Amino acid sequence: MEAVIAIAMGIMFGAGVWLLLRPRTFQVITGLLLVSYAVNLFIFIMGRLTLNRPPLTLAEGTIDPALYADPMPQALVLTAIVIGFATTALYLVVMIGARGLTGTDHVDGKETH
Amino acid sequence: MSLSWVQHLILAPILVPLIVGAGLVLINERHHQRKFLINLAATLSMLGTAVALLLLTDQEHWPSGIGVYLSANWAAPFGVVLLVDRLTAVMLLLSSVLASASLIFAMTRWSRIGVHFHSLFQFLMMGINGAFLTNDLFNLFVFFEVMLAASYGLVLHGYNTTRIRAGMQYIVVNLLASFFFLIGVALIYATAGTLNMTDLAGRLEGLNPEDLVLLKIGVVILALAFLTKSAMWPLGFWLPTTYSAASPPVAAMMVLMTKIGVYVLIRLWLLLFSEGPAAGFGFDLLLVGGLATLAFGTIGILASQEPGRMAGYAAVISSGTLLAAVGYGEPALINVALFYMISSTIAVAAFLLLIELVERIRVPGAAMLALTMEAFGLEDKPGEPVGKAIPGALAFLGLAFACCALIITGLPPLSGFIAKFGLFHTLLNAGPAGTGIDLTTWVMIVLVVLSGLAGIVSLMRFGVRTFWAAQNPVAPHLQRSEVMPITALLLVCVLLTAQAGPTLAYLERSAEPLSQPALYLERLEASQAVGDSMTEAAL
Fold first, then answer.
1. Where are the membrane-spanning stretches (chain B) (predicted)?
2. ipTM of the complex
């Protein structure tokens, strides 16, 4: 399972980086999204991959941590998703503004011929 | 049992801008004056808080001058811990001084060219203050994002094509840097199981070698984000373009944001890698990177015609010097480096504010003309031999420009000189007595001197062209609210020069505990949640 997830993240990150280096703003924002998915997945699995284990408990006394998933990365990834989503949306606004002001969707604001 | 109000003072620099910023959104843009006054009151209250924290930490109100605030009353290291020590206090003071100056400068003109300037300004302050105060890596990420999101809005403030072009690159670079930040934080948590910086330093000892390697990789990826912020070569190409495109008060605040990257690096690196199993890790990289940045800034400032870009490269040079000083790995160098950081930040910020006033002298197209003159080797026409008396406005601009130039390039008699002199003095006395001075030290000294020289050449070229060679300079109309903040910032530099002894002594006291994680660990363990029955019963 580790290998599958690692390869999936690698492909997603690689595709994202490739898109980030492209000259059109739409490609850049797609690249940013792919990179952010890969990163979020990375944070999530840093609590180790487990199956069928709840992250929280209300049990009294001491519990056996081996029976539970680590809740911390799950909390972190939620925050990261929200922040990443907000900043990417902000970039989208700037992108539309740039398209309107410069008349092109090239990242430099002008076409290169 | 409840907390004293002094304890809550640690939270104030974050809470005040949050509430004021949110409140300002609700006030209609028509009430400029009211919004400005509220903003100013909040910023001045932050200045007051910073001074209070400075005094409290220095008088050891808290043991070892380290104040710990457990946010939401969670026991350390499980909750987010805010931590104030002498270094934090001095950075908070620097940020509120710069903020007050930029805000007053923006009063008459810049805050009115777009909407929500005042709210964004307060949110920027919240992010900056939070980044200084927090002792938790993930919380640091959150404050970085608050700061960046506000800065995206402020860079685009007064929406035009140049700003939007610069803004697009600035946003993408910083978004990508934030993703690296997250990867680094996740790796650190995966290996050490904690996000609290102090706790992390305490856990390094118990890590097995494989985990330690992974942790180092995590810290390096994390550092990429800070190095992008502090514009280390080759991560800093965004900086000059963004600085020259942003409106002057915003650009002045961005000078401070560059220094936050350096601040976090100083704190994290000295805490984690001063002693223990990973001692000395990564210092060489910071040194080499800093020197490369210094060289890049030197070439850049020589090549710039436009004053905004000059200021940008001056900030790159100052970042490079700082990174190299941290990477040099000599504890005695840190306090001089901090002095240099304070003096150069204030000077570059004052310079960025000044440029806008100076530009009013130059007729449109003057910059283009200057370029052409250079290219074709045209001589200026000799001017009239008998000139009119210099009007007051021109005298102020000339004098302020000269002061900024002296501090930025490190010429006597102002604070820039003291900083560089101290730097060289410490570097030359660094090695064990009797041994020669090694190659790295020489390279660093030569590069710092060269960067100063390049700064002099570049700034003199600009100054001569603007003040002496300009045909019929028209004394611009300067508002009091525009002259005052620049004068105040330069007076701070004069004060730093006059009070260099006490300032350096204070900075030495603030630099000293940075490389002693044990002190911080002790304070962290001693801090207790309020009204915690279990802890109280155990005592």
1. 6-27, 36-56, 76-106, 138-159, 171-192, 212-238, 250-272, 278-303, 310-328, 334-355, 394-419, 439-462, 483-507
2. 0.93
